[in-house]
Automatic annotation (TrEMBL):
Protein name: Redoxin family protein
Pfam family membership, one: Redoxin
Database matches in InterPro entries: PRX-like1 (IPR047262), Redoxin (IPR013740), Thioredoxin-like_sf (IPR036249), Thioredoxin_domain (IPR013766)
Residue ranges constituting the Thioredoxin domain according to the UniProt record: 24-180
Gene source species: Chitinophaga fulva
Classification of source organism: Bacteria, Pseudomonadati, Bacteroidota, Chitinophagia, Chitinophagales
Signal sequence, renumbered to the chain: 1-21
Keyword Transmembrane helix: no
Amino acid sequence: MKSALYLACALVFTAAIPAVENPLEPGASLPKPDMKWMDVSGKEISLNNAKGNNGLLIVFGGNQCPYMVRNQERLHNICALAHKNGIGVVMVNSNEANRADGDSFSAMKAYATQHAFQCYYILDKNAELADAFDANHTPECYLFDKNNRLVYKGAIDDNPGNADAVKARHLQNAITELVAGKSITTNTSSTLGCNIKRNR
């Protein structure tokens, strides 16, 4: 009787512990592909809507991060390379704790106009996408193939703080290999940047 009661209590306790999702790893499916997100254009889009014939690149970013400033030229080049190769690009602002400040929707629109990135720029309400991707930094990149399978995640290159010291262009190489039908030589890399400002 005691053992049965102990087992019942243990089961209730276990059920009360929330499940922890695994970090997104290469080979994983694109999270939330059909959910709608507000773009700075004023239109709602889904990630599937944004995908190109050869895949989709997701970049978690923000308006004020010093690392975004240091990577702006590199982001422009990556967006151009992606579009040239039939890959859609979405930049995601998940800084929910900064909505009353520099990451408000109006600030996002001004930022997009100022820097003229060739991509969608969407507001991630309550950091839902960041949580689904297990994204934690800006910039942080996720490249998916045409079948919505993750082929690369991580940084743009090996030196986000100094463009002049870059030795390995991880994301550029991944895009080139993806379009060529090759396996991705480096499919993960460490990210360095500002923390995503979640509201918790």
